[in-house]
Amino acid sequence: MRTRITAAVLAAALTPLALTLSAPAAHAATPAVPYDFNGDGRTDLAIGAPGATVAGQARAGAVSVVYGSTSGPKSSTRTLLTQNTAGLPGAAEADDAFGSALASADLDTDGYADLLIGTPGEDGSDSNDGTVTIVWGGQSGLSGARSLFSFFSTDYDRYGQALAAGDFDGDGDVDVAVGSTGPITLSLVQGPITRTSASNGGSGSRNDGWSSSTGVTHLSSGDVTGDGRPRVVLHGRAVSTGAATTALADLKIGNYVDWLERLPAGFVSAVGDIDGDGHDDIVVGNDREPSADPEGALGGRVTVVYGGPDGRDTNRAPLVLTQDTAGVPGAAEKGDRFGSDVSLGDINGDGYADLAVGTAGENSAAGAVTVLYGSASGLTTKGATSYTQNTAGVPGGSEKGDRFGERVTLTDHTGDRRADLSVSAPGENAGDGAVWSLRATATGPTATGSVSFGPGTTGVSTAGTPGYGTALNS
């Protein structure tokens, strides 16, 4: 049974758009999985550095794409993207923050995943209008680009601060959901979206219960109901208190008031099938202290909401985890930021999605990552492990302010059908940032053979504080 959200808590109205139709794109026999840009069966690693200096323009932003290989992400095979890259629309300007958000899908169903890049600081019809760039995948990797349709440029700012892609309306074409600030906080751009397609229409929502100044800050998606069509998890802040607000949305339905389903509040989320029942589950991270957010906890908390035919499974109580939960490594301490990021993927190849949790504030913000495992009965703390830069075999060393675990992602970079663990520390080397990748095995991630690289290795300037790894594969 769905939870009806009252107008005082969370309400919205749909703003319809006139449709401009074009011929549907031809569908490939097997669309690529997200982030496999060259179609080799290995996911590639996209790394956002929105603080990067480009051609002297501070905080213009850059994105490095490091391609997968049998040994994991291989920094010698890479593509550097900025708004000055040939073929990309726009130009690198100060404070554009290109690379603040990332998403991927095979938009044109040609068998190669495409990359969506949010640039919320881009000036358009007004300051910080925002834009989203699509870079197309192909046999040789990423090349060629266009801008995503932007329907409400006078009604929002920071378009592209959050992104998700999927067939949200169930018509067989991939759509894109975009978070922004202002009166319109969420936009749905309908597919098909190809290199040459005209607009196929879209819609936008006014979430009256959410703060328009922060808007929709994070998006994730997955098949929670098991009907083959992804739903979207939206994150924002309450207009009256600034508290975290999280909801599950069905973007096929026009009346937002009737279908938004309240979830435990947090700032990030991930969606995947932890218990193998055919319904994706939702993990929400809230890394704030109780003094900073009403649903925060000492040291941060992570909540697992199990999916069912109607969205969240109301017959199963959510699982709440902190570092004081039995079996979770460490202890809950003020400022740990357990839940700074979350990601789901099958690390050990047993058919159940496992969970990586970032704890970017651990040990004076040196940072850590905790891995917990899925099972037929749900997420378990049995065998949970923790990784830091001081873990044997992990390159580097833990230092105050590194923020190791600010972003985490579980995805198969090697093609062995196990999800490898990639971690960023945007504070590494006084804000340069860096990324690590640990190979997956049948018993979990291994530090043996793990790789690490920073912005300089992949062509990103270290002038200023690029914050390499502020965004990773979502």
TrEMBL record:
Keywords, ordered alphabetically: Glycoprotein, Hydrolase, Repeat, Signal
Domain of life from the UniProt record: Bacteria
Region (Disordered) residue spans: 192-228, 445-474
Compositional bias (Polar residues): 192-223
Signal peptide feature range: 1-28
Stored PANTHER family: GLYCOSYLPHOSPHATIDYLINOSITOL PHOSPHOLIPASE D, PHOSPHATIDYLINOSITOL-GLYCAN-SPECIFIC PHOSPHOLIPASE D
Protein name: Integrin-like protein
